[in-house]
Each structure stands twice: as C-alpha cells, then as structure tokens.
Amino acid sequence: MGSQASTMWPGAMPPREKLLNHGAAALSDVELLAIFLRTGLPGLHVIQLAEQLLRQFGSLYHLMSADHQVFCSQKGLGNASYAQLQAISELAFRFFSSHLAQENAMLNPRITQHYLQSLLAHHEREVFLVLFLDNQHRVIRHQEMFAGTISSVVVHPREIVRAALKANAAAIILAHNHPSGKAEPSHADRVITEQVINACLLLEIRVLDHLVIGRGECVSFAERGWL
PANTHER family, from UniProt (predicted)? Predict the structure, then answer.
C-alpha cells in the first residue's frame, strides 16, 4: 500500500505509516478500512475500494453490521473478509467488557461509551439498558431493562431500583439508543433520568450518567452537566 498510497494523496502519509506514527485514532474510516482490506482490485486502488464500500453501505457501522449475504455480494469482499471483520468486532466488545469488569468505569468514559455503543447501536427499536456498578464503579453486569418502538420506550424507575438492589449495586449508568441515529436527548429522556435519580436517591444508589447512543455518536448527561 506504500508508494501507491502516497501518489493517491500527495504529501499525505500512507494509512499504515500514519497509524504507526500517530496512533489508530488519527485515521479516518476510509484509512482504517484500507488497512483491513490490504489490497484493492484490478484498476482500483485499496483507498478507492474503501471509499466505494463506505459509500455503498453508508457508513462503517452499516458495513460492519451488514447481513452476511449482503456483505459477501460486494466485489472485493467475501467469507474471509466477513469472518475477519466479525472477529474484530467481537474482540473489541470483549476488550471493553473485560476492561469495565476490572477498572473504574468513570476513569475512562470513552471505553464505557464504546462498550454501550457495541451493545445498543445495532437495535432497530429503542432499548433501555442499565450498567450495575460496585462501590469502586466496576461493572457487575448489564441488563436490557425495557424495549419499545422505533421512537420511544416506557421506563419504570422502580424496576431499575429493584434490579440494582438484586445486583447489590452501589451505582448505575443508564443508557438507551435512538434508532434514528441522532443521539441528541429529548425532553422525555431528561424527565425519566430525573425520575430514576429520585427513585435511587432514597436507597443511596448513585446514577453516574445517562448515555444516549446514536449511530457513531453518543451524548453523555454527565459531560453536559445535567446530573
């Protein structure tokens, strides 16, 4: 991918070298996908192939969550690529899961957000999930508490409190998805958060955050100062 990539983007660093020099976070979706693909097709550079696939699927999220048959029907992809991409996705999920089981979930909020995105972003209907934490803010377990329609979900604070007591949780993190893809919280989201906080307050269970998950984006109530 070396010299060819340099001619594709004059003055730019090829994706692999860019990753080694600046870290994976510095790469665009196209560059990351190009590293995964490794080679292009006859007459089509790997960068161009990556751009084409992202246009066809609409986003990296849609590419990685595509149906097996749809994925393999694309030129340049197949069973091997599908298996590798699914393995990468599962490895990332298990990494986030093991990290949160051993460390304070609030020390690295980005890890928590990525973990919740992997749990919720693929749902086509709204799902309300709760992370139950011990007194050191390590994740005890997660539970999908309520499911709704494509635009709303009914949440019962008492059920959350009951589940927190059963898990012997000292704190919780709330999360739900917006199937529309837009993560901006609604007025109803803020109201139910206040109701859950008030229900937990009586039993000294802290609500540390409420995360709204979209496609490729996430809004934290704690980061906005709403808790």
Answer: DNA REPAIR PROTEIN RADC, UPF0758 PROTEIN YEES-RELATED
